[in-house]
Design a protein that fits this description.
With about 210 residues, the chain is an all-alpha fold. It contains nine helices and no strands. The termini are far apart.
């Protein structure tokens, strides 16, 4: 795998280790978000579409990592997808009445996308890129939900900070390995997360 081939006292190894460590910290942020939802028995202001998109986006990371023999991407994708399950479960348990038919249709599209990515070879890279771009767009739904409700609700600042930290290292990792698509995608996430933090600080918890 490419990370092992580049192993040594160099930027490639340091960026890979940073991605791995802060990816684990990102999973901790997801655990804190899940605890906040289940502890308060509410997922108020937590974006359903952002959550669903990221669950499947990280599954796409897992599939793509296995396909490209990237240990970092495979481990991070699998780990982060698993830690999204209790968040999705909390939304279903406490905000089910607010989930629309469009949300269920959106879920079906995500399922179809990951299935197509698993079973087709020629579309794998394109679908992976689409999941990434969709992730950026849907991440904007989180600050929108906070603004719409005029409340940060049960959105965890810990998760936002850990996500921002993790994606900074993804940006560095992509730059070192010359993956410019991943670089610009990761940089876009950094900007969206910083904007979300600003909006979160603007509104009190409901």
């Amino acid at each position: 795998m490419k990370e092992i081939q580049e192993f040594g006292l160099n930027q490639a190894t340091l960026s890979s280790l940073g991605v791995m460590i802060f990816g684990i910290i990102g999973a901790y942020g997801q655990w804190k978000q899940a605890r906040l939802i289940w502890g308060s028995r509410s997922a108020y202001s937590v974006s359903t579409r952002w959550t669903l998109t990221f669950l499947f986006m990280f599954l796409a990371y897992l599939v793509q990592g296995l396909h490209t023999e990237s240990a970092i991407m495979s481990i991070q994708g699998g780990l982060r997808a698993v830690f999204y399950l209790p968040i999705v479960g909390g939304i279903l348990a406490f905000e089910f009445s607010k989930i629309s038919r469009r949300d269920f249709t959106f879920f079906a599209v995500l399922v179809a996308g990951i299935v197509a990515m698993i079973f087709t070879h020629e579309w794998k890279n394109l679908i992976f890129q689409l999941f990434g771009y969709l992730g950026v767009v849907m991440a904007l739904d989180q600050p929108y939900q906070i603004w719409k409700n005029k409340s940060r609700g049960k959105v965890s600042m810990t998760m936002l900070i850990t996500f921002t930290s993790a994606v900074v290292f993804w940006t560095w990792y992509a730059w070192i390995f010359g993956d410019m698509r991943l670089f610009w995608l990761s940089l876009s996430f950094v900007l969206v997360y910083l904007f979300t933090i600003v909006v979160w600080r603007r509104y009190r918890r409901g």
